[in-house]
Amino acid sequence: MAPSTILLNTPVVFQLLSDRANLSDFENCELIWEEDSLIVTLNSKKTQVKIPALSNETWLRDCLKRSPIKKVYLDPTMEETMIKSWVDLCESAQKQIYLKVPSIDDLPQLRQPRLWWVKRVADRFAASILLLLLSPLMIVLSIGVWVDSPGPVLFRQWRVGNQGQLFRIYKFRSMQIGAEARHHEVMGKQVGLHKLKHDPRITRVGQWLRTLSLDELPQLINVLQGNMSLVGPRPWALYDAIRIESRLRGRLNVMPGITGPWQVSTRSNELDLYAVTCCDLAYLQQWNLIRDFRILLITIPKVLFRNGAY
C-alpha cells in the first residue's frame, strides 16, 4: 500500500504497529479518522483495521502530510513524551494540533459575541501599539540575553490555547540551553504548577527578566497572531495541562492571556493546579470588558513591586 493512500480510505480506526524504537511513542495509539480530522487515542484494543509495521517515522509523516486531514486531536491522557512526539510529527506534516478536551457552553465569546469581538480587535490594536513603543526596550533586552549566555534570544514552547489548539508561545530566553530536557529532573515530583523559585537553570539576566516580567513581552507577537489575548487565563504548558483533573479539562478550551486573574491575585504564591484552574473558570463566568481593563491596570503595580514573580 502506497504511503499516500493510507489515510485516504473509508473512515476507520487504525492501530499503529511498529517494532522500531524510533516509533515507540506511536505503536500504542489508535487513529480515528472523522472527515478532515484525525483523533489520536491510546490503544483500546478495539481496532477494526491493522496497518503492517511502519518502516520509519518519515513514512508516517508523509502519510499524514499527503492526507486530506487538517486537524489532529491528541488524547490528553497520553504520556507527555507521547504527546510531544505526535506534536513534532504534526508540526512537520503542517497540520493543526489540538488536545481533545471537553467543550464549555458558558464561554464569553458564546455568551457575549459582540463584546468579545471588540475585545479581540482591541487586543490586536493595543499589541501593535505596544510593540512599536516597546521595540527599543526589546532590542536592548535581546542584546542582554544574547551577551549573557549562549543560545537563541527567544524561547518558544508549546502551550494550550483556544479550543485546545497548541501554539508556540514566545518569551525572552531566561534559562540555559537544554533547560527543557532537564525540566522533570529539576521539578522532581512537584504536584502543583511546575514553577521553582530557585531554579538552577535560570541565567543571571533571565532572573532579572522574570522578576520584572519582561520575559513576557514577546507574547505581544502571539496576541497579533491571534493565539493569545492581553487578558485571559494562564496559557498552560503541556506538562501542566495534562495533569489537570478530567472534570476541569474544559478550562483548556479558552483563549489564554499575557496577564489574567491568577497573575494579579496570587501569582506564584498559589501553585495548586486545582485552585488556579478554579480561579480561571470563575474569571470566565464573570467576564466583561470592564473587568479586563481593571486587570490590566492592576498588572502594572504588581509588576513594578514584583509581587510573586520568579
Strand content: 5-15%
Estimated structural class = alpha/beta
Helix fraction bin: 25-40%
Helical region count? 11
Q: How many structural domains are formed by the residues?
A: 2
| Number of beta-strand segments | 10
Along the chain, the helix and strand elements come as: EEEEHEHEHHEEHHHEHEHHH
Distance from N terminus to C terminus (CA atoms, Å) equals 54 Å
Largest sheet: 6 strands, mixed
- Unreliable stretches (pLDDT < 50, length at least 5) are 1-22
Principal-axes geometry comes out as globular
Rounded to an integer, what's the Rg over CA atoms?
Answer: 21 Å
Task: Walk me through the structure.
With 310 residues, this protein is α/β, with parallel strands linked by helices. It folds into 2 domains: 97 residues, no CATH class; 197 residues, no CATH class. It is 39% helix and 15% strand. The strands form 3 sheets. A 6-stranded mixed β-sheet has the order 4-1-2-3-5-6, covered by helices on one side. Strand 7 and strand 8 form a beta hairpin. 33% of the residues are buried.
Write the layout of secondary structure elements.
Layout: E1 13-15, E2 29-34, E3 37-42, E4 49-50, H1 57-66, E5 71-74, H2 80-92, E6 96-99, H3 108-111, H4 113-148, E7 154-160, E8 166-172, H5 183-187, H6 204-211, H7 219-225, E9 229-231, H8 238-241, E10 257-259, H9 261-265, H10 273-285, H11 289-304
Parallel strand pairs: 1-4, 3-5, 5-6, 9-10
Antiparallel strand pairs: 1-2, 2-3, 7-8
Helix pairs in contact: 4-7
